[in-house]
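Incident log entry.

Two folding requests arrived from the same account within the same minute. Monitoring flagged them as a possible duplicate submission, but the sequences differ. Recording both here for audit purposes.

Request one:
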Amino acid sequence: MSRGAMLGVFAGGVLALALFGHFGIHDVTLALSSVGWSGLGWITIAHLPSLLLAALAWRVLAVGARAPAFGAFVCARWIRDAAGNVMAVAPLAGEAVGQWVLAAYGLAPRTAMATVVVDMTVEMASQIAFGMLGLALIAFVSSATPGAVWAPLGLLLMLPLLGGLIAAQGTFGESVAAWLARRFGGRAGRSLLRAVR
């Protein structure tokens, strides 16, 4: 294990202990004991179908790129979700870890990153659609729901983000990368331009 990976594991452990201390070890253990081992098992089983479907959809994106076996995508998705939950304060940490896992299984790093970006785009679009459906159902049941104004506003704010993510995957993204490469130059700029092409 590299020094950076060991440092990351150590930092994660320290962060976990800090969270336990902040929220109270007693409260955390009480919550875990109320669920019990069987409850954790059922939660895992309930999560498994969505994990497998997400991994299968992710593998479809790597078609024609000498993609690793389906199990590699299941492993990458599982680790990606875990890293995203554990390192929630670091934006895109889970996605970066998922890309790294796929590259470790033999998928070309650029292809792995491209599949992560497309997967994120589809995931964001489906979350917006799912959120709108949920809001419509809530409005149908009760119009006096707390957050009835803020939730649609939040979904509307996600639309420009989704548009930007889609635009970045086309020629617009390549133009921005070329401008950044010229602006900052050097090895980092050339690497950025190579990554988007």
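Request two (distinct sequence, not a duplicate):
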Amino acid sequence: MGAILANILGNADVVKTALNAIDNWHTSTSEETAAKASAKVKLLQAYAPFKIAQRVLAISFTAVYLISFIATVVMTQANIGNPAALHNVMSNYRIGTIELLIMGFYFGGGAIGGMIESNHAGKADREAIKQSNNQEKVINR
């Protein structure tokens, strides 16, 4: 078809330019989906350094918390040393609260993101059902 239009218009470059302009003007569903997927991949790549920092914080504080907790339990069960002193240090520095906050940020970000995506997907589903119902009403009239 391009060859026929080129013969009519006299220049193949004009036809190619016009067809490319039309193609660029209209974004197909597959192009839109590919663009969104590409944007999401780029966003995830941008978050990669922050994920490493989250893991380092989570692992380091979890290790301190677990070592302190296990030491307190062992000291209490074996009646060794003064477990109350260790418990007081943990309480004074609020290690449990810090651990909960870090774990909340580490796991909560993904959970909240999943809920937001689920809500958006649910909203799209509700809109599709609403449109389908509206089309049925028009057909039934």
